[in-house]
Amino acid sequence: MPPAHPASVPQHRRPLPLRVGTRASPLALWQTRDFLARVTRFCPVLRDAKAFEEHQLLTSGDRIQDRRLAEIGGKGLFAKEIHEALLDRRIDFAVHSLKDLETEMPPGIVLACTLKREDARDVLVPGPALAAPDPADPLAALPRGAVIGTSSVRRQSQLLHRRPDLSVVMFRGNVQTRLRKLAEGEAAATMLALAGLKRLALAPPGAVALDPEVMVPAAGQGIVGVTVRADDTELRELLAAIEDPEARAVSAAERALLAALDGSCRTPIGGHARLLADGRLRLTGLVARADGGFLLRRTLEGDAAEAARLGAELGASLRRDAPADLFA
Ligand SMILES: NCc1[nH]cc(CCC(=O)O)c1CC(=O)O
């Protein structure tokens, strides 16, 4: 799809500023400001310094720091209060990390725009006591019995499947908090999304990216998504014009996979799609047990125009062949 010509962007007659909702973490703020910069490049009438007003919102996911997301209700927790602000008309649109956004939007809210994907891979970050891992096989290099900090059941299951000798301690908080815990020796290494590190211009020494076939990323990882009220035609048109069609296709596949598998938010699930040179789409899905004792990974290729159908099909196939208790 060719990028829409700027002339097709609607003139904005509505009162300014447009109010943008965001979480307050450094990563969320970076993503929000990057998004606003894209909008103003595309729509010069919004270049005015007073065109946007940033509303930082505290979500349940930010408040609850002592438990796994999987235990307290999963993804929706980073978006609930933001959805409420949209529906209450306290904000006009909101910027999210797509991987923290539930697959089904609440009534009245739509995912209007997905931005160009940053690197979707996870990285292994060694703490100060560890030698830099071998980039060819980073997980093999971890010392026997080492303690790895993560609170993601998806990362934990894939790590323990490969290395049952390792143990895992909970690491929550934003990217900076987790790096501080690592520096303080709470774990020998941790795993983070490369996208977050790149956006924050952080390059922890020894960090190595993990092959997405070895550590299947989360659905939507590295993609920023923007939500608006379904009835806000004007903003929906503007946002549709700056959408990245490739990000829309891969996220449609990954999110349909997630939706098809989503029996319980405690289930480790991975989903990663990429567009091939011939316009086809290749999707890898993973479902596992948190302790790594069971792990099923499958790949499917199909027409990128039918990304969501492909995701649903792969999700159904994984679900059929995984133990039923994973979806209880
Ligand atoms: N769950 C927190 C979160 N949500 C999005 C990112 C990274 C950026 C992205 O995936 O777009 C992170 C940090 C991490 O997982 O290390």
TrEMBL record:
The gene is hemC. Its cofactor is dipyrromethane. GO terms for cellular component: cytoplasm. Pathway: Porphyrin-containing compound metabolism; protoporphyrin-IX biosynthesis; coproporphyrinogen-III from 5-aminolevulinate: step 2/4. Belongs to the HMBS family. The keyword Transcription regulation does not apply. InterPro entries: HemC, Porphobilin_deaminase_cofac_BS, Porphobilin_deaminase_N, Porphobilinogen_deaminase_C, Porphobilinogen_deaminase_C_sf. Tetrapolymerization of the monopyrrole PBG into the hydroxymethylbilane pre-uroporphyrinogen in several discrete steps. Binds 1 dipyrromethane group covalently. It catalyses: 4 porphobilinogen + H2O = hydroxymethylbilane + 4 NH4(+). The keyword Transferase applies. PROSITE patterns: PORPHOBILINOGEN_DEAM (PS00533). Residues 18-236 form the Porphobilinogen deaminase N-terminal domain. HAMAP family: Porphobil_deam. Monomer. One of its GO terms (biological process) is protoporphyrinogen IX biosynthetic process. Its EC number is 2.5.1.61. The porphobilinogen subunits are added to the dipyrromethane group. The lineage of its organism: Bacteria, Pseudomonadati, Pseudomonadota, Alphaproteobacteria, Acetobacterales. This is Porphobilinogen deaminase. Residues 252-318 form the Porphobilinogen deaminase C-terminal domain. GO terms for molecular function: hydroxymethylbilane synthase activity. Keywords: Porphyrin biosynthesis, Transferase.
